Hints:
By secondary structure, the chain is α/β, with parallel strands linked by helices. The protein has helices spanning 12-16, 22-49, 54-71, 86-96, 98-117, 129-146, 148-152, 164-173, 180-195, 205-208, 218-224, 228-242, 250-254, 271-276, 278-300, 310-323, 336-344, 351-367, 376-390, 394-397, 404-419, 422-444, 477-482, 505-520, 532-541, 543-547, 559-562, and strands at residues 79-80, 333-334, 446-449, 462-471, 492-503, 524-528, 552-553. The chain folds into three domains: 22-390, no CATH class; 394-444, no CATH class; 446-567, Transcription Regulator spoIIAA, CATH 3.30.750. It is elongated, with a radius of gyration of 31 Å. The mean pLDDT is 87.
Amino acid sequence: MARPQLxxxxxxxxxxxxxxxxTRFMADLGAGITVGVVAxxxxxxxxxxxxxxxxxGLFTAIIAGFIISALGGSRVQIGGPAGAFIVIVYGIVExxxxxxLLIATSLAGVLLFALxxxxxxxxxxxxxxxxxxxxxxxxxxLIAISQLRDLFGLSIPGKLPGDFFxxxxxxWLHIASFxxxxxxxxxLCLGGLFLWPHVxxxxxxxxxxxxxxxxxxxxxxxxxxMPGPIVAxxxxxxxxxxxxxxxxxxxxxxxxxxxxxxxxELPDFTWETAKQLFIPTLTIALLGAVESLLCARVADNxxxxxxxxxxxxxxxxxxxxFIVPFFGGIPATGTIARTVTNVRAGAxxxxxxxxxxxxxxLVVLLAxxxxxxxxxxVLAGILLFVAWNMGEWRxxxxxxxxxxxxxxxLVGTFLLxxxxxxxxxxxxxxxxxxxxxxxxxxRLFEVRSHVASRGQALPVxxxxxxxxxxxxxxxxxxxxxxxxxxxPATRTLVLEMTRLVLIDVSGIEALHQLHRSLQRHGVGxxxxxxxxxxxxxxxxxxxxxxxxARHIVRGLVDLEDALAPESQPA
Length: 570
């Protein structure tokens, strides 16, 4: 038995190094610094929203970001903690605890590496589009709702519940602790992030206020390149500190961020625990694979060939997720916002992603104490902006343009993601997609009466029907009904199969039953113009031996041989 062909481990970085020069390095350096600055607040915000400490998000961005860029299959993809994981990680921490999250993340890393090694990266592309849109929009809604606590400055002891309705109820019960200062900071942050991209563009806010000429030159160019999240984080943190606003900060909730690297530590692993983490492991691996490969495909549309290697990307994602929990990190995947920022900043190779990880590392080592002053309401505003950009909200308005099946899958996946969880949503969505696909394919199978062409005469007692499409388990009803459509004078039923492209075992069994039924009524069965795939299965299943090789002919012109007296059924 031949061994399965394994995918060679060859990072895209090796292909980028030949001919690499100083010009490209400077471009990658600038892009890496830019995306590192963008990733800094997001890493902390994603970690806090996931129910873990902010430094765990930073360590994930550093370690996983470095591994994914250095060993991945894309030239420009940036890896790290992602918004899509917030709801998943929070639910796992609440239900299983932090230690089990780390174990599930490492196990998911093994699974991701195996998917890439055995060349299964392409399978992720078979996840239907309405499922992807449904769970993406659902996660965006959950992220937004989870940030209402910090946006409103609510004083809620302990962690918020993971259940959607319990979460809303808990926040409603504590609405009396609403903090106007926190709400003002959060809304300023959110409004500023929406406004920032429109300030410097031609015809933007500076032009309308007649300030463009006064501020033109190097300061204006430098300001236009500053990422909006960093501008909001710095300015609003300074504002809160100068006016001593009574709002909760990273320091007051978490005690700040350590300015040292995390120590290597093995989680408390047992096989009994691992068996209980099957669903969380599968969820992390599935979401990580989908997010990373969707992100890589988005990046491919923004850069010149070659395209990304999905299997190598999955192996890198697997290694990153296997290693990072040993340093207290959380699940990582490809991130669309940071990857697009990387491309637009001029990245030419994975070196930019490596620089981005080094930049975050330097900030942690040199400026960690400053993070203690960051208001949580500002991070909430940043995450609300991320949630808005994550969702494909226009798809809801376009639903009426698509079929009922499409609408049911998208809306069903969305609601199940919000009300229950992503695993249930994807499982139900895939089941619905499969059921509807089977239904549509079964409708494409047809049994038509043969219309003789001019000058063509069929022998007396011969009835010809044509089979169209695929004869599989969902379409065998068409063959079963055929028994009742045989004309009284028919002595031989001919199945013309020129347009029958596929048949499965259920289809073969339906033909067996048809042949037995026809035999009981003294009617023969002849197959005509059988294509390669159906013919191969007809032979391997023994149907050819049952009906006789002479009853399988190339075309209708060869019917005389099949209808010869010696070939008639007894």
